[in-house]
Design brief:
The complex is a heterodimer of chains A (about 180) and B (about 180).
Chain A (H helix, E strand, L loop, with lengths): L4 E6 L16 E2 L5 E2 L17 E5 L4 E5 L3 H13 L3 E5 L2 H9 L6 E4 L8 H10 L5 E6 L4 H10 L3 E4 L4 H13 L1
Helix pairs in contact in A: 2-3
Chain B lengths: L2 H17 L5 H8 L8 H25 L5 H18 L2 H16 L2 H32 L11 E3 L23
The chains are: A alpha/beta (about 180), B mainly alpha (about 180).
């Protein structure tokens, strides 16, 4: 068995803080701040906001982006790949369902709502009906409560308003990596 | 004008986009995704956005000419446009999209049309500003702004949890099994 660790350097100063990631030991980071044992991914805003930071995954994760909008596909795929996640992208719900049906598996699925051929809600339902337990994030430009409920009922794990940000994605990647 | 001055101008221009509300932090996320392998990522995505959204704008214009207005269809077009606008951090454009969708929900055709005119204005203003910005940035030449080194693969099987911290460069090395 071997582990792949993907170490990524984030070197840009953030416009807002809020990029706190968890740490397992006390280390000094270049701007002089230090992470303490037990800092949590969500809670700590001091950790990585002003200096160099690393997110280390122990496993190579896989993801599927389902979105008919080329810009969203490009941005989400680039974001995932920047964390070393092997990412595929398809343009409609039917292609996503077919991929799973053909035996492909993914740790994470980013599912848009409005899609040609088969929409995101239906695709989510069908994927769950196949017994697929991948983490499904509904990522949509609409943020209404009824859409959120509909997606969660269809089997999505979380509902996120576009755009997808590292603040939301990284804790999810860390959680998937630890399982 | 020497290079430092051009760099400074570019930086000031960039900052003004955030200060004046044209762009939000999503634009910074795009800059973060630029690296040696994708040195022009932001400009490419923005170019793609303006290319693809031309069709969406046309669809909305045509839909607004119909009578009676099909608010569901209008909302659907705008849903997509809002998604891509938010992906590049186009803050003012995105807020007009939200306003438009509110008018669709309320069945207010007059409001839709007014908002759409404002949206097209913001869209065009941002396009011009970004074109100028990218042109100047290219003239200024490469700078340290938003350029991350490529991901490195390291082996660390003893880690029990995900490690987050700083590794001195002499310990960073790449090999594979």
């Amino acid at each position: 068995m071997c582990y792949w660790i993907i170490i990524l350097e984030k070197s840009k100063t953030q416009m807002e803080s809020g990029r706190g990631f968890g740490g397992s030991a006390t280390r000094r980071i270049p701007n002089g701040k230090s992470l303490e044992q037990g800092d949590t991914a969500q809670g700590n805003n001091n950790g990585m906001s002003n200096g160099h930071g690393y997110v280390v995954l122990r496993n190579r994760l896989t993801a599927l982006v389902v979105d008919d909008d080329r810009i969203c596909r490009t941005c989400e795929k680039a974001l995932l790949e920047s964390y070393g996640v092997d990412t595929q992208a398809v343009e409609n719900g039917r292609d996503a369902v077919d991929l799973f049906a053909s035996g492909a598996s993914f740790n994470l699925v980013l599912m848009a709502k409005v899609l040609p051929v088969m929409n995101g809600l239906e695709a989510t339902r069908q994927i769950r009906a196949m017994g697929i337990r991948s983490k499904i994030l509904a990522v949509t430009a609409a943020a209404y409560e009824r859409e959120r409920r509909a997606f969660l009922e269809a089997g999505a794990d979380e509902f996120i308003e576009k755009p997808l940000t590292p603040q939301i994605l990284v804790p999810i990647l860390l959680e998937l990596d630890n399982n | 004008m020497d290079r430092n001055q051009v760099h400074r101008q570019v930086a000031l221009m960039r900052q003004s986009f955030f200060d004046q509300g044209f762009l939000d932090e999503q634009f910074i996320q795009l800059e973060e995704l630029q690296d040696e392998a994708n040195p022009n990522f932001v400009e490419e995505v923005v170019t793609l956005y303006y290319r693809d959204s031309t069709r969406l704008i046309l669809n909305i214009e045509q839909a607004l000419e119909k009578s009676p207005l099909d608010f569901n269809k209008l909302d659907c077009h705008m849903h997509q446009f809002k998604g891509s606008s938010s992906s590049i951090g186009a803050k003012k454009v995105k807020s007009e999209c939200t306003q438009f969708r509110e008018y669709c929900k309320a069945g207010n055709g007059e409001g839709c049309m007014r908002t759409f005119q404002q949206l097209k204005k913001e869209y065009a203003i941002l396009k011009k500003k970004l074109e100028t910005y990218f042109q100047m940035a290219r003239q200024a030449g490469p700078k340290e702004i938003a350029c991350r080194p490529k991901p490195k693969l390291d082996i660390c099987p003893d880690l029990e949890k995900n490690y987050v911290g700083w590794i001195p460069s002499r310990f960073r090395y790449t090999f594979s099994f």
